[in-house]
Structure formats: structure tokens, C-alpha cells
Amino acid sequence: MANLEAPVELAAGVAYLTTGISNVYYVGDKDNWVLVDAGVVGYTRQILAAAAARFGADAVPRAILLTHGHYDHVGCAGELHTHWGVPVLAHALELPYLTGKSDYPQKDPTVGGAMGFLSRFFPARTVDLRGPLIELPEGPVPGLPGWTTIHTPGHTPGHVCFWREADGFVIGGDVVATADLDSWIGITVQRPKVSRPPSPFTYDWNLARSSIRQIAELCPRTLACGHGPPMGADAAVQLARFAEDFRAPSHGRYVDTPAKADRNGVVYEPPAPPDRLPKIAAGIVAGSLILAGAIYRKRGGKTKADGSGRSKTDSSA
Fold it and tell me: What is the CATH number of the domain that holds 126?
């Protein structure tokens, strides 16, 4: 019987585990491996169990590498660091958001779609990793032969992908998603499809477009991202087509004017457009309560018509 706690193998030296809404990746062999991303809060036990199933009970990674620092990619990083005692690495432009120096550009629920709606209920802050956190250099991944770190900003300032040229393998974080997160059906069914990065959390759509094209030019044979099932076979074809035809959402806070960030964090955000949904929802709730009250009062004062056509209550009959 298969070990249900073991991560799913994708290629030599790469396996993945889904933690609620995001994927984490185990890269390397039992003598030299890293964890890429750290999932959502509450999945520490599953991540550790999958590591033990793949590499052995006492397996410890060389490091935890982050594609970026959004809450759904770093949720277990602190607990995993405490357990393993290994460093957490992220690109220099991600460090302000992972050390409490700056918040990310604010999420934009007005961008629309399923993820836009759901983002209203997602945490706005990420975790503070200032103790174990060190800078991840671009270029060759330290201690992981054959892998390269590629800076792919747009979704976040310091977003990165990891590329293995030998077999055309990309660990893509949120440079794109491999399920349509703007669609309720896409989120539910998770049909493999190259799609936009999570829209309400993408702060610069021009940079996102450039990063997508940069990864498409690699012609990856496997595309393994943070959201959605990893893709093989037609990954390169879908990605090339998507990069060529890429369109930002039709509206939203960052569609026309991006936020600006530097090594200290966010330095500019465009004004937030009005978010009408909470007011609409409040109006629906208020209207429902008024209607319910009217129905209740009507039932509480039931009437009968007497022979003269006048009404009288049951209590006066």
C-alpha cells in the first residue's frame, strides 16, 4: 500500500505535497535536499511526515527556500525552522516583508473573480522570520547542483523561480498558476491550465507579464507552481501561448498603475478603488432582515374577515 504521507514524485529528485491551497516541493536526495516553500499555517506535521517518508525519519534539509513570502507559502516556515534548525532563504527584495519592516502592497479584492472575492477573507500579513532568514542569491542555488534561481518579479517584488536546465524543470511559485484561480469552477476542479498568478495579490502586471515571458522562453518540460497541479506534456506549449496572449485583469487597483517597492519595502501604492461588495452585501442583509421582520409581524397578527368585509384578529374572535 502506498504511503499516504509521502509526497508525489514528479521527476528525479523532485516531489511535491499540497498543503490546503498551496504546494511545497522536496528537491534533492536524502543526503542533500531542500524544501521549497512552506505552505499554509497548520500543515507542519504533514510536511514533516512527508519529508520522513521520502528521505528517512531523521532527514533534515539543507535549507528552506522561498519563492516569495505570501502567507500561503511561508505559513509553516517558523515551526519548520525550529524543528530542523536550518536557515530560510528568500530574495533580497522579499526580506522587508518577512522581517516586519514593511507590509506587502495591499490585496485588491476589486480585481474581481473567485480569488478576488475570497481574498477578502485571507490574512493581509505574512510571518516574521527575522531570526532564521538570510538572503537568497540569484544564479546557482547554494548547495543544490544543477538548479538556478531566477528573479521573476510582478506577483511580489522578490518573487523567484527555480530552474533545472538538465530536464527542463521549473518550480514556478506564483509566476503563474496551473489552475484558473479567477474561476470558481477552476478553483474547485483544479484542471491543469496555465493561468494568471493570484490576481488580488499581484502588484505590478507589467512586471508579471515580463516574468511570465522570461519563464516561457525556457520552454520547460515540467511546470510545477504554487497553485494547481504540476504540468508536464503540454506545459511549454500552454505557457508560450499564455505568455504571447497575456492580459491583465480588465480592472483593479494595480492594473493601470503598479505599486512601487525597493529594498526597504513598499514606497508607493495607487489609491484603492471603491469596494462596493461589502455595501451591497450589507444592503442585502439589511433588506432580508426587514423582509423577515415584516413576515414575522404579519404572522404574529393573523387576520380574518368578518361578514361585513372588515378584518379582525384571532384574539378578538
Answer: 3.60.15.10
Q: Domain of 225? A: 8-268
Q: What total number of domains does the chain contain?
A: 1
For residue 277, being part of any structural domain is answered with: no
The pTM (predicted TM-score) of the whole model is 0.87
Beta strands in the chain (DSSP E): 8-11, 14-19, 22-29, 32-36, 64-65, 88-90, 133-135, 139-140, 147-151, 160-164, 169-173, 222-225, 260-262, 265-268, 303-305, 311-313
Query: pLDDT by residue (tens digit) across 91-147?
Result: 999 999 999 999 999 999 999 999 999 999 998 788 999 999 999 999 999 889 999
Q: Is residue 19 part of a domain?
A: yes
| 195-221 pLDDT per residue, tens | 999 999 999 999 999 999 999 999 999
